[in-house]
Amino acid sequence: MSLAIEKSSLFHTDVTNQFGWYFDEAGEGLAWRFFKSVDQTLLKLASQPDLGRRRRFRNPMLQGLWSFPVASPFNKFLIFTASQTIRWKRGA
Questions:
Q1: Is residue 27 within 8 Å of 34, Cβ to Cβ?
Q2: To the nearest 5 percent, what fractions of the chain are helix, strand and coil?
Q3: 57 φ, ψ to 5°?
Q4: Is the C-alpha dihedral spanning 44, 50, 51, 57 positive or negative?
Q5: Are the C-beta atoms of residues 46 and 60 closer than 8 Å to each other?
Q6: Residue 53 in contact with residue 67, Cβ under 8 Å?
């Protein structure tokens, strides 16, 4: 089963900001590698929506979230999924 991915506005903002940071700090090549890794991860999640780790939060608004790391070497970034909406967060 393959799902359509709906990206939240926060997702777009975060990815764009991180792309810009890589571009400014590490160069254009690394910025595009980051973007491609995010894209590859999204394609993988679309084709295998059961991937990832179920997250448990006390806040009822956060129930049902799953996380999956962006493809290496950017695996400190997590993509969060819930109801086919994509969000992400940088890991520690």
A1: no
A2: 45, 20, 35
A3: -125, 150
A4: positive
A5: no
A6: yes
